[in-house]
């Protein structure tokens, strides 16, 4: 294993680890829709239903 490969693997682990930590932290704070454009409005089904209604009305 070369040094280049090791650096790439470490960077990928840091990126995936930070994303996992962010999701864990937001779930712990009570958010149900992480990454949802309506940010924490409720269960994802409600968010997607609102978005579909908005898109139909546009």
Mind summarizing the main beta sheet? none
CA-based gyration radius? 18 Å
Can you write the helix and strand succession as a string?
HH
Distance between the termini: 54 Å
Low-pLDDT segments, ≥5 res: none
Morphology call: elongated
What does this structure look like?
The chain has 58 residues and is mainly α. Helix content is 69%, strand content 0%. The protein contains 2 helices and no strands. It has helices at residues 3-28, 44-57. The relative contact order is 0.09.
Blueprint of the fold:
Layout: H1 3-28, H2 44-57
Brief synopsis:
The chain is an all-alpha fold and 58 residues long. It has two helices and no strands.
């Amino acid at each position: 294993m070369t040094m280049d490969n090791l650096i790439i693997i470490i960077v990928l682990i840091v990126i995936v680890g930070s994303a996992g930590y962010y999701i864990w932290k937001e779930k712990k704070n009570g958010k149900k829709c992480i990454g949802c454009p309506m940010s924490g409005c409720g269960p994802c089904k409600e968010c997607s239903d609102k978005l579909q209604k908005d898109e139909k009305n546009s």
